[in-house]
Amino acid sequence: MIIVTVLGFDYALASSLTGINDLLSFANFAVGDFRSLNTHAQFKVQIASVNKAPITTLNNVVITPHIAVEDINHSDVFLVPCIAGDINKTLHKNQPLVEFLRSLKTSQSIIGCNSTGSFFLAEAGLLDNKMATTHWSSEKLFGDKYPHVNLKTDQHITHDHNILCDGGGVAWFDLGLYIIELFSNHETAMHVAKTFVIDTGRSAQLSYSPLISRKYHHDKTVRKVQEWLDINFASDITIAEISLWIGLSNRTLIRRFNEATGITPLAYLQEVRLDAACKLLVQTTKTVDEITHKVGYNDISSFTKLFKRKIKLTPSSYRAMYQSRN
After folding, report:
1. Domain boundary, last residue among 176, 198, 220
2. Its pTM surpasses 0.85
3. Which residues of 115-153 are buried (b: 16+ CB within 10 A; e: fewer)?
């Protein structure tokens, strides 16, 4: 079971405290649905506060936490909600929470934040020399206070090592789906997105792709290859051609790509093509045959078998499941 702890404090945004709880709790049902098994809950979500004190949110909704921060023995994920009040005052009044976060500096747990919750992580030194994002309106304040953070406010979600940040007040929704994707699978994340219908346009774009976690590494050469494959996936591509273009031997390219992403370049190309096919199935009325050729495959039978093996649904079933929810 994946334990997720939401670290509450006064004047937090209520929805980023309770919403992530709802989202991950619902994922427990979705996991059982997709695997057709009576599985045990995959996520246990708990809200914590210093001394287990009641949390008074911005809109004066009082939330009773499940556990005191001091009593936490283990959590696979720690999440800090959005600061909805004055940022400097909130940080000043919550130094015990900052100290707790500082104690997680060597932790292997995922440590995430919603919007301006990133100030807590930065104050605790967890974002030093790491990529992060925050709400656009707080960009200058954040940059002035924490110059050693690689701030990327143009990015909706950042993931650097074990640190996750999102950039908007209601982006806890995206952050939650990202966590579901990381610990469960793409289908479960999509099922939850479609069911909540918070933003049908965004969820219809299948932005919670299995490719997300492949992009967070520091090999610029491999990232350049990925970006090229993301654009040219429909072409007839060989390792030799990629190696010649990037200036590496076949063996070196495969080794470095595997070290950075966990898979080979051709396996990544396959994921890109399948991801593109999923988008086309949901967003267009093109036939499966048309989609097969558009994403770089010639034989519809082989493509259908590959799609079913990887996605666990036929292309037609995938379209019926997701397109009907839009």
Report:
1. 198
2. no
3. bbbbbbbbbbebbeebbbbbbeebeeebeeebeebebbb
Number of structural domains, the chain? 2
The amino acid at 81: P
Mean pLDDT, the chain, whole residue set: 84
Strand, coil or helix: 114: strand
Residue 205 lies in a domain: no
In a domain, 15, yes or no: yes
| CATH number of the domain enclosing 88 | 3.40.50.880
pLDDT (tens digit per residue) in 94-145? 999 999 999 999 888 899 999 899 999 999 999 999 989 898 888 899 999 9
Write out the residue range of the structural domain in which residue 235 sits.
212-323
Q: Which pair of structure tokens corresponds to residue 190?
A: 């999509």
Q: How many degrees, rounded to 5, is the angle at CA 173 between CA 169 and CA 174? A: 95
